[in-house]
Amino acid sequence: MDVKLPNLGEGADSGTVVGLFVKEGDRIEKDQPLLELENEKAVATIPSTAAGVITKLFVKTGDKISAGSRIISVEESGGGAPAAVKPRAEAPARRAVAAPEPVEEGVEEEVTEEAEEPVSHANNGDVAASPSIRKMAGDLGIDLTKVRGSARGGRIMIGDVRSYIQRLIRAAQQPKGAAPAAAKPVAERIDFSKWGEISKKPMTSLRKIISRRMTENWTTIPHVTQFDDADVSAVLELRKKYAAAYEKQGARLTLTPFVLKAVAAMLKQHPIFNASLDEVAEEIVYKEYYHIGIAVDTEAGLIVPVIRDVNKKSLVELSKELEDLAKKARDRKVSAEELKGGTFTISNQGGIGGAHFTPIVNKPEVAILGLGRGSLKPVVKNNVIEPRIMLPIGLSYDHRVIDGGTAARFTVDLIKALENFKEEDVKI
Q1: Distance from C-alpha of 304 to C-alpha of 101, rounded to nearest angstrom
Q2: Domain match, 130 and 256 both
Q3: How confident is the prediction for the chain on average, in pLDDT?
Q4: Most CB contacts within 10 A, which of 10, 169, 172, 178?
């Protein structure tokens, strides 16, 4: 029998093979790991659904596969073959959808005539989309074959359907004879070898995702960055004082847990920074939970695992969880769920170096805090010049939601919180 890639869940039905654990001729057991599949920013281990001897291996490292793709053929060892799972009669089997070709923006916007045609959704069952999205499209009379999917393999997400509906509305409201939107410039391919020796390395799946998301975040969010410096001399003294006690608890006390606690308090004090913009409903969604993403620099690229309920956790708990998530991110063992649900992000480059920088807002969040490396500087305090360790910070925010004065007040209050961090919050 053939062992195929199962549907891994919403938005996770395809990926790139980054590791193989078996070869032809191997005897395997049910639930034995077959391969590692890179999907979005996580790596999932795919187990076997059958036991026996592998007679054929259909994939290799670097292959892109989707739900239903054959992984191996197995000659089963006794017990009889399990009943084959047949596709439901009411819905044809889903075909794998290739990544969409670049489409000129102007062509995509010209949908006035298309919107007036009778809609046929006979092929909705063939489109790469979840059953809930296909049902919604059927209820609304939307032909999903005309919707461009943004997920891997062209899979259609709920946001893609919303964007398609918005384009139809804009097209319907556009005066007849109006000029179409300007076409998106086509990328030019340059032969760099004309000027000297070169080498090439394909973009990894993770780098492609980062590229796509950063482009979307930068082009759809009007960014402004508020810069300042925080005096963290007292905080670092507290860290030095209690570092050994934290080590005994199995926790490594760094500056980041202090920042996490201070940011969580500021998000409660300034709730607009813990919000999101619902562009479809034109509403601001205020969240009553405080899940903060931490950007982790890995060999594969930037990964942002999320620490949940930061406001409810002690500095010891935050220190342990921070180190655990960072290790899992670098080992590519962080789960897809651990990358979701963030309300605010912190990007700390202090361990690498550098000063102020402009971090890009992680949509659908509305703000992100960038931290540089603290350095000893002469500071005037009470009319006296003192050496103080100053931490460069940069707060980028979505100017559609947050005004400059609001961002300045958030920054001022955050600096006060760091400079006046209570020792009782550090004690174990």
Answers
A1: 28
A2: no
A3: 83
A4: 10
